[in-house]
């Protein structure tokens, strides 16, 4: 049943919606030509207004689809994580039960060997012969028979306990295998949900970029068409050029600042020796092992069972799968290690979320990022200590903080000892 459900989910998630049609935006020459004809001018105004409206609608639709796919991704990942924990727990129980069964079987074998040494295969005959030969009489014989009866009774109990332990170990082992199969099925479903969510997030980002790119020009064209004085486009074009010049200057400034910050981080890492110095390391600090502290702040919640927390998009589960760092609203979030962004977008109760494949089966996740606070995109390569986002409280969060998590070969693990062992102590 779980397999059928997962496969149905995969089919639903990976079948793409119909591709967007290319839009033929009017050029400035089209607008100027229409300006000279009243009827054409009216039609062109309506066309531009519709294009602006369509851009806004497209952005809203793609963002809604991204939110939907992100929520499906969160559910699929939670189902996989729950199954992974169940499989791990059952395997641990099965291993412990097998150890108990092995010990009980060994004890039963030792007792059987002891019985054999004392009487062979026919204990009663041996006892009778022993009694007659020694002439000890009936009392001694009865005493030996009583002792032997107790030994046989004990042997029977030990054997039954060993058999029960063996049966329990077998049953737990079978359950663990079933749980592992379910885990792998749900892992496939989670991967399919990730693919669908990635596509939806990229579509939303592209729609927003197109809207931002074209809306300014369309708004200027509309103003031109509605301008009774028929002013020329020279002022607009000059403004576009000036804005481009200023944007280039700002981009160069940001790049220089980022390079300087990265150099400072590397210098700090080199001079410190990179040891696991304990608490107090600042966000972005890079250890000698190449791992960075993802945010500055004290730890507000650790890994493991906890109370349910509810936020704007729903409630968390009763198991906390990462470490919460109490950084302030808008504080920078840094990549914990070199890697490739595998997801950047909405993720249900995680809010805005980034996941990075750090290689070697390790991936790191960053949740509750503020609206507009994701600075990387799917498929982008990032470096340890790079500012990839800023802190927020989207999703199931009751305050600004970073939820930081680590996965090793799929399942989530406790980030604190993992990061401490790499010289980037959290908190």
What does this structure look like?
The protein has helices spanning 2-14, 28-35, 38-119, 123-134, 138-225, 234-272, 415-420, and strands at residues 299-301, 304-305, 310-311, 314-315, 319-320, 323-325, 332-334, 339-346, 352-359, 362-374, 381-382, 387-391, 402-408, 412-413. The protein starts with a helix and ends in a 7-residue tail after the last helix. The chain has two domains: 1-12 and 22-227, Helix Hairpins, CATH 1.10.287; 299-420, Glucose Permease (Domain IIA) (Distorted Sandwich). With 427 residues, the protein is α+β, with helices and mostly antiparallel strands. The strands form three sheets. Strands 1, 6, 7, 8, 9, 10, 11, 12, 13 and 14 form a ten-stranded antiparallel sheet that branches. Strands 2-5 form a two-stranded antiparallel ribbon. The protein contains seven helices and 14 strands.
